[in-house]
Automatic annotation (TrEMBL):
PROSITE patterns (UniProt xref): SSB
GO biological process: DNA recombination; DNA repair; DNA replication
The protein's name in its UniProt record: Single-stranded DNA-binding protein
Gene: ssb
Complex and partners: Homotetramer.
Function: Plays an important role in DNA replication, recombination and repair. Binds to ssDNA and to an array of partner proteins to recruit them to their sites of action during DNA metabolism.
Motif Important for interaction with partner proteins positions after renumbering to this chain: 151-156
Length: 156
């Protein structure tokens, strides 16, 4: 099936400091875990519940790996765009094991720093901060006249 591809987008908090390795060919590779969570109110008990999922992320893009190495730490909030890939490996006892990872490839995929770090407190001064929305952005991003005085005349 030509023309089909998988894309995964995850927004979450980094579980521990990323591991940066170098391949035999000299390419840097970053790997880390990313936690996403969902909260809801239990219908029977009325208590707040939370479920956390852990995702393994591997980055083969050297530019993105450089950003990860410099700015991403435990607790950082990041958005990852990559592909789900499952790989098979054999453990020390000879058992076949499978691991599913979100892979940021050499070409394609991305990582976005999303502001303040959670977990261990504080924010790194180099990390990007969330954008503040102004009134024009809340109105749809166009320059609307002030008040309710909208001119419905179309200029073409």
């Amino acid at each position: 099936m030509a023309g089909h591809f998988s894309q995964t987008i995850i927004l979450g908090n980094v579980g521990k400091d990323p591991e940066i390795r170098t391949t035999q060919g000299g390419q840097k590779v970053a790997s880390f875990t990313l936690a996403t969570s969902e909260t809801w109110k239990d219908k029977q008990s009325g208590e707040q519940r939370e479920k956390t999922e852990w995702h393994r992320v591997v980055c083969w893009n050297e530019g993105v790996t450089s950003v990860i190495e410099r700015f991403v730490r435990k607790g950082s909030k990041v958005q990852v765009v990559g592909q789900n890939q499952t790989r098979k490996w054999t453990d020390q006892s000879g058992q076949d094991r499978y691991t599913t990872e979100v892979v940021i490839k050499r070409f394609g995929g991305d990582l976005v720093l999303c502001g303040e770090r959670g977990g261990d407190g504080g924010s790194s001064p180099q990390q990007s901060q969330p954008r503040q929305r102004n009134s024009q952005q809340r109105s749809g991003g166009w320059d609307a006249p002030s008040g309710d005085n909208l001119d419905d005349e179309i200029p073409f």
